[in-house]
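Can't attach files on this board, so I'm pasting raw text. These are the components:
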Amino acid sequence: MVIFYDKRTGDIFATIDGRVHDEKTMEAYATDTNRPKEFVGKFIIGWIESKDGGKIEYNLDQMDLVKDFEDITSTSPLDFKIDVEQGKLIPKLKEGK
Amino acid sequence: MADYGFRISQAGNDVKTCADRKTVLTSKYPNLKQALVGSGQVTVTGNIPEVNITHNLGYIPFAMVFFRMASDPDGAYLPSPQPYEADNYWARHYCNDTILKLLFSYDDGVGGSETFYYKYYIFLDKGNLW
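---
Top answer:
Structure tokens for the assembled complex are below.
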């Protein structure tokens, strides 16, 4: 899964689903009017295919979260944010909680 | 049926003789091939935000977008495009050679905001009709 987040807040605002990503997918980007590209960070959980056919691992310690996102549960990556310092997903506090 | 190709039948159906509609996969017909699938959210606060998913495929791909609003958490995802209706919102999307662009608008008349959750599917198959 490729997760796009706002570098200023850590807020996750878009994703690309999947576990293994090729070069073409890694060129893909998500931005919006409020988040131009310079403020957008990418966080990857899964594998990226290298040109020689190998796979490079990224943040597999958080693969259980991806499994939850893929499952029929209501867990969504949009309910999390990126803790940039720790390099991990943390639940986003909802208003009133 | 031609004597070559690839067929997988539904459970309980003979793959050699069953109707095409009883297959789960057949090379007789084209299948949509996913290029990028994902989700996201954007909040409309008076402006009309543009969400850009850069696919860089070099041609206009076939794409589908579904969305729902945060104020309707139990609501089903609706297909884009949706025209302006009594709820004072609209949503639409289009593709060019490099980008899937999503547009959302919300106007409740008192300057309120709305968050749209979206799910997008971009296929390797071409979406232009010429």
